[in-house]
Amino acid sequence: ERQLILQAPSVTVGVRLVDGEPVDWHKITAKEVVTQITLDAKDAARVVRVAALFGRDAIGVRTMRLASSKGDLFVAARSYEVGDITSKLTCELAGEKDVGITLNAEHLYEALNAMGDGQATLHLTGATSVLLITPGRDSPSTAEHVQMLMPMFSD
Question: pLDDT value at position 45?
């Protein structure tokens, strides 16, 4: 009851409708954004995709670090088996200039890729706060299209 099961020869997907209200994301995010980073969503998704190939932590999760400095966004990933990679993206920064956050690379790629053509704006409040991704000024995505990513802890 109140569930959907989809089956194919090699996979089964189940979804269940739960009672209750969805979480109001406005309540779990910071009230003040420290830094806003606006960049081309497709370019950023491409760079994050490459970083995801390199970055793996000890349990196999693909992690990467975003750090901004002087109008550039640096995307870095490390794997003890493969090595390090750092890429630079040109962006527009508003607010505090030097910020950093560690994220799941696959989740960030999916969020940026979902923005489609145009710009995306990353709203950062700190290394341990939720990252919000919204459509940029020239994005064809709707204003209600908000992605939330939880940060990961790194060494």
Answer: 92
Cβ-Cβ contacts under 8 Å for 67 (sequence gap 6 or more): 73, 74, 76, 98, 99, 100
> What confidence tens digit (pLDDT) does each residue in 20-61 have?
787 776 776 767 778 888 999 999 999 998 888 777 665 556
- Nearest CA to 131 out of 56, 59, 44 is that of 44
Among 129, 77, 78, residue whose Cα is nearest residue 101: 129
CA atoms of 105 and 69, how far apart (whole Å): 20
DSSP tag of 70: T
What's the residue count for the chain?
155
Tokens of 84: 């390090």
Helix (H, G, I), strand (E, B) or coil at 77: strand
Residue located via tokens 């090699």: 10
Nearest one of 29, 22, 61 to 133, comparing CA atoms: 29
